[in-house]
Amino acid sequence: MKKHLMNLTNFSFGSTSAITTNISIVIGLGSGNISKIAIIGSLLVIAIADNISDSLGVHMYKESEACGLKESLISTIGNFSARLIISLSFVATIMIFSIEVAQIITLIWGLFLLGSLSYLIARRNKDNPLKEVVKHITVAVIVIALSRYFGTLLLRKFQF
């Protein structure tokens, strides 16, 4: 059981970041009438460059806590893997569907993933799952709404 809880801890940060960032990119750039290839390119940059940067930050954080090399590496690999898998699921959605349909699917898929992760963490911590899910989804929806607003503003300002 302890091993399972440790795994949840190791991938929860990366998963949350990947979910929110990827939905925001799809919704924000999609509303700005950006091409599929530009959105896919943006998602791949997030999947690789931002992921490596983020994973390095997790690794250094673990090292600063003096957790030891093994725990630092497990956390780093867990973070990297979670973010990569989630990001690639969003890339696949954009590749398969039109931008309009992909925006809806990524929103549903991302909020489902975020809600599920929030639920698991709340259960583990013996918190109210509904309260935690609503709290986390509310924050994500605010970020997504801002991304959509700026994507639309970009379209109007630069007339892509």
Features:
single chain
Rounded mean pLDDT is 87
Structural class, by secondary structure, is mainly alpha
Distance between the termini: 52 Å
Helix residue percentage: over 70%
Mind summarizing the main beta sheet?
Answer: none
- Order of helical and strand elements: HHHHH
How many extended strands?
A: 0
- Which quaternary structure do these chains form? single chain
What Rg do the Cα atoms give?
17 Å
Supply the number of helical segments.
5
What sort of overall outline do the alpha carbons produce when their principal axes are compared? globular
Poorly predicted tracts of residues: 1-5
The number of domains is 1
Strand content: under 5%
Describe the structure in your own words.
The chain is mainly α. The protein has one domain (8-154). It is built from five helices and no strands. The chain has helices at 2-31, 36-64, 69-96, 99-125, 129-158. Helix 1 packs antiparallel against helix 2, helix 1 packs parallel to helix 5 (129-158) and helix 2 runs antiparallel to helix 3. The longest helix is centred in the first third of the chain and has 30 residues, at 2-31. The chain starts with a helix and ends with a helix.
Secondary structure layout:
Elements (H helix, E strand, L loop, with lengths): L1 H30 L4 H29 L4 H28 L2 H27 L3 H30 L2
